[in-house]
Write a structure and sequence with these properties.
- With 86 residues, the protein is mainly alpha-helical.
- It is globular, with a radius of gyration of 12 Å.
Length: 86
């Protein structure tokens, strides 16, 4: 999951700092992530993982780091799997 998030950030995040030099806890906004690039990245993540971020996760804190994105995905992936199974 982390590698996919990092790849999507590299492709869509338009970071000023190369993603491979950032730790998973690094502040992506300090690395150059803009609100527009965060939305592009979010949409790419939704497509890659076949999920939809709920409204309560559509905030800056959800996309501030690779760790925070991963935490959001870990929260919504079981819910998405349950919906598909129903």
């Amino acid at each position: 999951m982390i590698e996919t998030i990092r790849r999507l950030l590299q492709e869509n995040g338009r970071l000023h700092t190369p993603i491979e030099t950032l730790t998973d806890s690094a502040d992506l906004y300090e690395a150059g992530l803009t609100p527009f690039a965060a939305i592009r990245t979010m949409l790419a993540i939704e497509e890659a993982f076949d999920v939809e971020f709920p409204v309560q996760m559509l905030r800056r804190q959800s996309f501030v780091s690779v760790d925070s994105i991963s935490a959001c995905l870990n929260e919504i992936l079981p819910e998405a799997a349950a919906r598909k199974a129903a």
